[in-house]
Amino acid sequence: MTIVRELPETIWRDYLQQHPQANIFHTPEMYQVFARAQGYRPQFWAAVDATGWPLALFLPVEVTLFGGPLRPLTTRAILYGSLLCTPGPEGERALAELLRAYRRAARGRALYTELRHLADQSALHPLLAAQGFTHEGHLNYLIDLDRPVEAIMESIGARTRKNLRRALRDEQLRVAEVTGRDQVASIYQLLQQTYAAAQVPLAHPSLFEAAFDILYPQNMVKFILIQVGEACAAGSVELLFKDTIYGWYGGLDRAYSRHSPNELLTWSILSWGATHGYKVYDFGGAGKPEEEYGVREFKAKFGGTLVNFGRSTWIHNPALFRLSSWGYELYRRRFSRRQPGGEEIQT
């Protein structure tokens, strides 16, 4: 067994194709997107057997708010699609060895490492706990797209279904797919409003530009806008991999809320997916179970299955983490005062 920091893309892709829990965030394309984005630094870690075949895959992305002397206080390592491990004792031994190697190298580089589980990883919880990771609940909604569009519509809550049908009849509303790089800015403006209202810093525009440059030609992303006349009322960025659509980023201009553009946006994604061979829509998160979260209420109206795959976190330096958390709250308050209002963030 060997720990490696790179792998031939052919082997990397073959491993993802055969692994049932592989998702968009494990792909070479997403690695390239993060590598191009300002404030992001992806890493590649894998444990391979004697033939070079992966037994475990670990792709942390270091996300930094500020460089220079503040970098240690504003950097976190996130595995947006969690990790992959070949089922069975050999894969678990490989993962344990991989995590030990990563932990030795990662100290001092980030405040914490967070695994965002997009599938059930409960079998690995004891192994992760032994490596210093603490598990906590985090909800999500998954919508079954492998059925007739009419059935998906009927599973939506009655009030939302009424608003949606009214939006479908609204001649002012139009669904538009972004097909040019220059149009990405229109969606980014909507995201800025949304993230400002949520008091959360938004990724640099280069992340979305890189997603368009790399993923769009491979049919791995959709940028969708809802327009009221000539104005942009809502927009989203959807990631595509295998038979799943992943809700990545969404934004709304609240000035157009009476037209229900968010409902129409979500429906356009679901109906398109159901008629183009996709089986699951992953809503991209619905918050912690113990906390109220307005976005969860919105997502719940679309009749999906509520799951709690959770997140696992290893805090590298608890004292530094506490100091950074205090500073981040101050930053959020100052950030929210400076920015225009908007819709609550969907994460």
CA radius of gyration is 20 Å
Q: CATH architecture of the largest domain, please?
A: 3-Layer(aba) Sandwich
| Classification by helices and strands | alpha+beta
Number of helices: 11
Tell me the total number of β-strands: 17
What is the CATH topology classification name of the largest domain?
Aminopeptidase
Low-confidence sequence ranges:
336-347
- Tertiary shape: globular
> Order of helices and strands, N to C?
EHHEEEEEEHEHEEHHEHHEEEHEHEEH
Furnish the topology, listing elements before pairings.
Elements: E1 2-4, H1 9-18, H2 28-36, E2 40-42, E3 45-48, E4 54-58, E5 61-64, E6 75-79, E7 84-85, H3 89-106, E8 112-116, H4 125-130, E9 134-136, E10 140-144, H5 149-155, H6 158-169, E11 173-177, H7 184-197, H8 205-215, E12 221-228, E13 231-241, E14 244-252, H9 261-274, E15 280-282, H10 294-300, E16 305-307, E17 311-315, H11 318-338
Parallel strand pairs: 6-8, 14-15
Antiparallel strand pairs: 1-3, 2-5, 3-4, 4-7, 5-6, 8-17, 9-17, 10-15, 10-16, 11-12, 12-13, 13-14
Helix pairs in contact: 2-8, 6-9
